[in-house]
Design goal:
3 domains; Hypothetical protein af1432; 2 strands; single chain
Length: 533
């Protein structure tokens, strides 16, 4: 179903507005471009105000709204190549708006200045020689790659030809020296001209105020920008930038959606999240298909784990967007073949937090973010980004963590080959034995992945398999430290388990815990305990 091909088709069944989804994705776009979050949303507000000043109709302003939010969304699709040639690709893209690239020569000069940034001189020389062949072709393809990716995403969302045409012309220039078709002057749609201008002046305004924004617009008038549009912009600049920081940008952008609001049905919502998953995974060739794999495993495992249907649906959706925060970490780190430095490890540990912060902006998506942030947490507190442990990890988070761990092991990474199904399953079972992953969640994920898993007995009081292991040892009279040594977990984690068990079964000491265990037949030999001895 195509929208904005003249008419917007609203839906009344939606859990979320399309504007919310695109605004969340725009935060990832900002990270991928080396811009502070909310750059795209501020650009969108400026574009809408300017569109109104030049007399665009309500339908045309709606097109401008979606083009502004989507135009730069493809900027990360060739991050692998960007990092390969330029080191930190964020520096390359972050400087793009500060440079007036007037043709092939200036474009190549821009690329050469950033080539091998941060690398030793000898490495930069080697890259320079290689860049003249493969690297130059990669660089020439970059802008076209970006708009093609954004166009494909808009198509998946069902947005119509006017929006897609505006996206296609994102990198065209008034002087005809842009890409992909070298359109010039009024061959470029007014929407594309407005968004192009708004994108650049937002950066200059943020750095130097209205005067800086007006100065760059005048400097590039008749070259990059429509001179008549620049005249209108300069005359109206104080109004166009007014209150940009006064109100919450998120609320302003969502409230500014023109024309009829586009809402998504449940089916369309899932489809849009799948498109976001695919788009996120384009960040690195090593993660292609990862988010869908995690989502499918987590969704299937959630029901086996015992979660209600609605919560299982949320777990699958969280799996689709759990790695949005990857866009905020350089491919120089993700695709590094050697060992990461401590500083690089800290950047990696940040990505679940970034996912959660992006999704938290939307009331409809915030519950997914609360699940996403747990996908690298571990029961013993050794995970990240918050070092959560024990009951601080929700059932949904435990399932997602197990699904992500399994899927990642079945995929290659720059520092290791992919692992077989048997190796991945063995790794996860070991993480259960060491108290890092929930045994029931791992069993559910392995079953969803097609492994044969023994049937687990129903346990009283909602005890997990790990809690039964601990309860047996408590009943045998072992101290907290001895339990920790037996199960290869930390004393703190063992203590947390004991507290949770006592709370679940309603006792306060070892003797009563022993009575409970005996009454419910929990003292029989257990392979997990036997292997730990």
């Amino acid at each position: 179903m195509h929208r904005l091909a003249g008419v917007i088709e609203p839906s009344t069944r939606s859990p979320i507005r399309l504007a919310e989804l695109l605004a969340v994705l725009s935060l990832g776009t900002d990270l991928g471009m080396g811009q502070p979050m909310e750059h795209v949303m501020r650009e969108c507000l400026i574009a809408l105000r300017l569109a109104e000043r030049v007399g665009l109709s309500e339908t045309e302003r709606a097109v401008a709204y979606y083009v502004a939010l989507l135009a730069w969304v493809g900027c990360h699709v060739d991050s692998y190549e960007q990092a390969k040639w330029f080191g930190d690709e964020f520096a390359l893209k972050g400087d793009f708006r500060l440079t007036n690239i007037t043709g092939t020569a200036s474009g190549m000069a821009y690329m050469m200045r950033h080539l091998g940034a941060g690398k030793p001189l000898a490495e930069r020389v080697r890259l320079g020689v290689a860049f003249l062949g493969e690297g130059r072709r990669n660089a020439e393809d970059m802008l076209e790659n970006h708009w093609l990716a954004a166009d494909g995403f808009a198509s998946q969302l069902g947005l119509g030809g006017d929006v897609r045409h505006g996206i296609q012309q994102t990198f065209e220039r008034w002087d005809g020296k842009g890409v992909p078709h070298g359109a010039r002057g009024e061959e470029i749609s007014m929407v594309a001209r407005i968004v192009n201008l708004a994108d650049v002046v937002e950066v200059y305004h943020r750095a130097g105020g209205v005067e800086a924004a007006v100065a760059v617009a005048r400097e590039r008038a008749g070259i990059q920008f429509d001179p008549a549009l620049v005249d209108t912009f300069c005359a109206e600049a104080p109004m166009l930038f007014s209150d940009l920081e006064a109100a919450t940008t998120w609320e302003a952008v969502i409230g500014a959606e023109p024309a009829l609001q586009i809402s998504l049905s449940e089916e369309e919502f899932d489809s849009a999240l799948e498109a976001m998953a695919d788009f996120t995974d384009l960040k690195s060739p090593y993660t292609m298909g990862h988010s869908r794999a995690v989502a499918d495993l987590a969704g299937g495992a959630a029901r086996t784990y015992g979660l209600p249907d609605a919560e299982a649906t949320s777990v699958r959706r969280a799996g689709l967007v759990h790695d949005l925060g990857r866009l905020g970490v350089s491919n120089a780190i993700w695709d590094k073949r050697g060992e990461l430095t401590p500083a690089e490890q800290e950047r990696v540990r940040l990505h679940p937090y970034l996912s959660e912060r992006m999704l938290a902006s939307s009331s409809a998506l915030a519950p997914l973010g609360a699940i996403c942030i747990q996908h690298h947490e571990r029961l013993d507190g050794s995970g990240y980004p918050r070092g959560l442990s024990g009951d601080a990890l929700t059932p949904a988070g435990r399932v997602l963590a197990a699904a992500d761990a399994y899927a990642a092991r079945r995929e290659p990474r720059p520092h290791r080959p992919e692992r077989s199904e048997e190796e991945a399953a063995a790794d996860l079972r070991n993480l259960v034995r060491t108290g890092r992953l929930d045994g029931d969640a791992v069993d559910a994920v392995l079953r969803a992945a097609g492994h044969r898993v023994g049937r687990r007995r129903d346990r009283p009081a909602g005890l997990t398999s790990r809690e039964v292991d601990v309860l047996r040892l408590v009943a045998l009279g072992l101290s907290t430290r001895e339990i920790a040594e037996r199960l290869v977990i930390s004393p703190k984690t063992a203590g947390n388990h004991v507290e949770h068990i006592y709370a679940k079964i309603g006792v306060s000491n070892r003797a009563r815990a022993s009575l409970f265990a005996a009454k419910h037949g929990l003292m029989a030999a257990d392979p997990v305990i036997d292997e730990a001895r």
